[in-house]
Amino acid sequence: MVVSVTGMDSLSDRAAKMREALQKSQTITDNVVSILGSFDSRLSALETAMRPTQIRTHAIRKAHENIDKTLKAAEVILAQFDVSRQAEARILKGPHEDLESYLAAIDQLRSNIRFFSSNKNFKSSEAVLNNANNLLAKAISKLEEEFKQLLASYSKPVEPDRLFECLPESMQPSLGSPANQDGGKIHSAHNHSEQQTSEGYKNLTLIPPRILPLLHDLAKQMVQAGHQQQLLKIYGDTRSSVLEESLHKLGVEKLSKEDVQKMQWEVLEAKIGNWIHFMRIAVKVLFAGERRVCDQIFDGFDTLRDQCFAGCTSGSVSMLLSFGEAIAKSKRSPEKLFVLLDMYEIMRELHSEIEAVFDGKACTEIRESTFGLTKRLAQTAQETFGDFEEAVEKDATKTAVLDGTVHPLTSYVINYVKFLFDYQSTLKQLFQEFESGAETSSQLASVTMRIMQALQTNLDGKSKQYKDPALTYLFLMNNIHYMVRSVRRSEAKDLLGDDWVQRHRRIVQQYANQYKRSAWAKILQCLSAQGLTSSAGGSQVPGEGGSGSGASRGLVKDRFKTFNMQFEELHQKQSQWTVPDTELRESLRLAVAEVLLPAYRSFVKRFGPLVESGKNPQKYIKYSAEDLERMLGEFFEGKSLNEPRR
């Protein structure tokens, strides 16, 4: 019991202590809360007291930031002023001494202008801009003058020798040729600066390569300043005179239709040959070189580049084309056909080069003028072709061919046709100019056949001038044979065909047969037995085996005398006639001999005894068959009357 009471007292004490501790803790808590509340009030008061100070501090910091920004902006502006002063100093010195530095100064000045243009809120911006723009205008003006002087100092006419050196070796003029007027050799002094092209042409250096980048930089600045028109004028004026003078030195002349009409054919023909050479040199060497110069100076400015090139070459092209136009418009004549074809040929050859060199919209007029000349040359050549065909048929020259040989017209026409076949590809191209899709080979064959037919028609007319029909046939035989032989030996055979050749060979044979009948029918009648019997009497001698049976000696003698007289007349006359072709001459003699000699031998054998038994038989039987054969060998030799016999 005592134990339990003691325990209870202990628990009560512990509980009492715990209550006391809790009360103290509550008191402390209340005190802490009170203290914290007091702190909060004081902090609020402090914050209220410090707010004006904070606002002033922020404003001061903001002001410092603004001052820093202003100072930095001022530094930038001052730097721009400094750049402007430096650029001005370099620009005032001019571009001649140090072009690169001058161009850099212009770039800086442009940058300066852009800066002040975008910062116009500064009080002095407008004044600075005015000054900078004025300075830039002066700088560009000096650049323009520098471009002009630099271009002019390196723009010199090209000597002919330098142009010739750029040609393939096969085209270079030989010593003393017309294209090399001074007669000197062509040297290779400039070869180091010329590159070989695929066709064997060398690239002509018109302006040194080291100068072209400088001219490009100057041109670029002028373009940026909007001075394209000034560039166009400077380049055109400077380079056009150089190109024209280069062509003049080469020998190019600006000729009118009237000038051409006054020229002797030999002079004109030589000038046309030179013109063809000049066109090739101008397009493939001179203008191609100028195009490369333009491409480099105006690189990046395509429209301006083409305008400058067109501007500097138009005068030179016009000078070259004027001669071609004068020829195309001049009075047509047959001998001009081949030079017209030569001129047309060179224009066709240069077609692709002209398209490439004179590329671009600005060169349209130049391209059209060159292609227009090509068309006119083709038109004139075709019309000349037609004129020739008509002229052949209507040729009324009274040139007499007394010996029946080949007429000059025949040889002229045949040579003309043979020359035409040297231009087969050109003629085919020419026909295509006007008749697209047509078979050009058949066209050429048709034209050639018409010319041949026109010639035959004319020869038929000329053959009627002869009073002796035999000479008429001989003349026609000679001329048609000449046509056939010439065709067989030329390319015309492939075009006209074997049928044409065979048909005309038969015509030759027909004329040969007609000649024989006309020339020899009468004399062969003398060797006929018909009419040798006489009912009026007279001495008659029966021959052996009936030879000469019933023939009158007097009639036989007369027949021999007539034969001798006619043969001598034929010999005298036909030994003056001509068959110029050896083979035809021999075959014609043989054809006559094959008819005449057997008939003569037979006549002499049959009726000779009647004469030989009388007085002076040699007076009647003057010739042996061998004598006749020998004399036939003198026929068709074209001998003069007083030329001695062989």
From TrEMBL:
One Pfam family it belongs to: Exo70_C
What's in the keyword line of the UniProt record? Exocytosis, Protein transport, Transport
Per UniProt, residues of the Exocyst complex subunit Exo70 C-terminal domain are: 274-633
Is the keyword Transcription assigned to this protein? no
Q: Where is the composition biased (Polar residues)?
A: 171-180
What species is given as this protein's source?
Answer: Manihot esculenta
Would you identify the family this protein belongs to, as annotated?
Belongs to the EXO70 family.
Q: Name one GO molecular function term.
A: phosphatidylinositol-4,5-bisphosphate binding
GO cellular component terms, semicolon-separated: exocyst
KW GTP-binding (keyword) present: no
What is the protein named? Answer: Exocyst subunit Exo70 family protein
Q: Which GO terms describe its biological process?
A: exocytosis; protein transport
Entry function: Component of the exocyst complex.
Q: Where is this region: Disordered?
A: 169-198, 534-554
